Amino acid sequence: MTTRKGWSKSLSGFARQVERDLTDMQKRVATEALQMVILGSPVDSGAFRGNHRVSVGSPDTSFDESAGASQPPKGGMDNETFNREAAKIAPMHVPFTVIYIQNNLPYAERIEVGSSDQAGEGVYAVAANTLREKYGG
Fold it and tell me: What ranges does the record give for the region Disordered, renumbered to this chain (predicted)?
């Protein structure tokens, strides 16, 4: 709003608030995406579900074939993986920073293209489509 002498509120303060709001929204969507890919993961040994990786700014290409052993069946939350990876999203404070969520197991791409009876539509594509429907884009 304006007055005869100028703006009644600081534009720089407004810009900072917009940046905070954008960053908070990006973190919420990324955290929701992480939860969706974990919950949508097919489970045999649990390795696929335990190998979703989050990185901020650049991709993390690591994987651990022993991850996820003794975890709940498909549709259950792998809290260890979720907590570990969500903690990488929380400190982000710059809007529009790229957040990567990926799975680097050698067979992850086959799962994504529908080779698993438990995830015939893939995992990441389902999460992306659901988020697009929810938030637009």
Answer: 48-80
Q: Say yes or no to pLDDT of 74 above 80.
A: no
Q: Which residues of 95-125 are buried (b: 16+ CB within 10 A; e: fewer)?
A: eeeebebbbebeebeebbeeebeebeebbbe
Q: Residue 3: what pLDDT?
A: 57
Which tokens belong to 65? Answer: 């074939």
| Predicted pLDDT of residue 4 | 65
- 3-state SS string for the chain: CEECCEECCCHHHHHHHHHHHHHHHHHHHHHHHHHHHHHCCCCCCCCCHHHEEEEECCCCCCCCCCCCCCCCCCCCCCHHHHHHHHCCCCCCCCCCCCEEEEECCCCHHHHHCCCCHHHCCCCHHHHHHHHHHHHCC
Higher pLDDT, 102 or 73: 102
